[in-house]
Write a structure and sequence with these properties.
- By secondary structure, the chain is of the alpha/beta class.
- The chain has 5 helices and 7 strands, in the order βββαβαβααββα.
- Helices cover 28% and strands 23% of the residues.
- It has a 7-stranded mixed beta sheet.
- Helix 1 packs parallel to helix 2.
């Protein structure tokens, strides 16, 4: 089990990376290289700073106002094992977990069949924002994603219903 994560950054008081008051954890390393990405410095696998998971947990664990954490990047699935453990810790504290990725959900399911860390992160994710950022599909009118091709998938309901279910704010109230 990973004891550290390589991070691009961490924001303890985000209101734009999912509903409510969240800690946004920006992982380092991304294979997608989407043109127009708002975090291009998070792409190099060897950039950023190594953080102990205990220190990251302390950043969100001490705030009683938080709704949840958001794993973003970079791409959290590059460091799936450490992100899964962090998500497990967030759930143990009653927080929700949102994960942003440039991979499509269907591709992640294929990856999970051969990678237990990917499977664990999917299992610990409540809402998945999937798909690469496409500059030609960019829209400032979308809630919680940057381009029209991206989906905001309610993985908790997807697992419960056995069918892909998009996020609905009403279902979370």
């Amino acid at each position: 089990m990973a004891e550290t994560l390589r991070l691009y950054g961490l924001v303890t008081d985000s209101i734009v990376d999912g509903p409510g008051f969240r800690t946004a954890i920006f992982t380092q390393g991304c294979p997608h290289g989407c043109p127009g990405c708002h975090n291009p410095k998070s792409h190099p696998m060897d950039g950023g700073t190594v953080w102990p998971l205990d220190e990251i947990e302390k950043r969100f664990g001490d705030n009683p106002l938080l709704t949840g954490i958001t794993l973003t990047g970079g791409d959290p699935f590059v460091q799936a094992g450490g992100c899964a453990e962090l998500a497990r810790r967030a759930h143990a504290r009653g927080l929700t977990v949102w994960t942003y990725t440039g991979y499509l959900y269907e591709r992640l399911l294929e990856m999970a069949a051969g990678d237990p860390d990917v499977a664990a992160l999917l299992a610990e994710t409540d809402v998945l924002v999937d798909g690469p950022f496409l500059l030609a599909e960019r829209s400032l009118e979308l809630a919680f994603c940057g381009s029209r091709n991206q989906r905001v998938i309610d993985l908790a309901r997807t697992r419960a219903l056995g069918a892909l279910t998009l996020y609905s704010a009403e279902a979370w109230l």
